[in-house]
Amino acid sequence: MNSPKTRSQHPTSQAAHSQLSRSLRSVLTRIRAEDWEIIGLYFFLMAGSLWHVLGVLQTAMSVLSGPVVVMIALWIAYRYDQILRRERGMAMQSQQEDKKNGREAAQKQALRGLAQFQHSSVTVRFHSWNAAVGVLCFTLEYIGVKTGVIFGKYQYMDVWIPALNGVPLAISFAWLGMLLSSFAVVQRTLVSVRSQWLRALFVALCMTIFDMFMEPVSVKLHYWHWLEITGNSFIVAPLQNYMAWFGISFVLAYAALRLGLFQTPMPRVAWHGYWAQLLYFSVIALAA
Fold first, then answer.
1. Quick one: angle between helices 239-258 and 106-147, nearest 10?
2. Rounded to two decimals, what is the model's pTM?
3. Which domain holds residue 267?
4. 176 lies in a domain?
5. 193 assigned to some structural domain
6. What is the pLDDT of residues 5-18, one digit of tens each?
7. 8 Å CB contact between 46 and 280
């Protein structure tokens, strides 16, 4: 038989449990779809880094590494495409409201038409730039592997498949994904900077810093290996490689800005895409 003291505590315990459940449901309700994507991104990449550190599921991780690179790049591009199309829809809706309210002056119509055209064409320019980045970067990687002139002497291993004459197709998406994420970092950190060449410079700097963390881990995971030994456990690639990364990234970033791209803020997943991947490589590098 329960004592009066036990019986008096039971409703209190139930009330506390009920309050905790309501608080948890309230928190989960406030988490948006994009938040879940970001949480999933960090969870997946951190789980992958720990598996590499512990030596678990290495075969599966090798098979998935290429598709994951492709998926991240395409997902960021898709999210940004949604933002650009949403802005275009808002411009069109504003134009329709002006017509409905009778404000159809010739000058205002011309301005609205110009805004609609700009929002429409920016998506075309964005995807054209994406395609150009993919083709150009694959071409440069192909020339680099065959000649050693651009990045130095290196070879890809049989991990990222499919590949064309020893150059994995996923490498184009690796360049694209990191460029998009680097633009997101620059947008958030250089809010007041409007100089195109300076913003492109910082995009290139973000790309080069990322490559410095990526190189030793990629060699350790047998994604590729350098034929030139530097004798350094962190700077495993020749200086030529980092200079090429900086130069190529600057040209691609500056071209994008000259085309009027990346004026609209990038999605949050792009910002976190940079830091989540950098954290992934950092964890594996520190555990090596």
1. 160
2. 0.81
3. 42-83+125-287
4. yes
5. yes
6. 444 445 566 665 56
7. yes
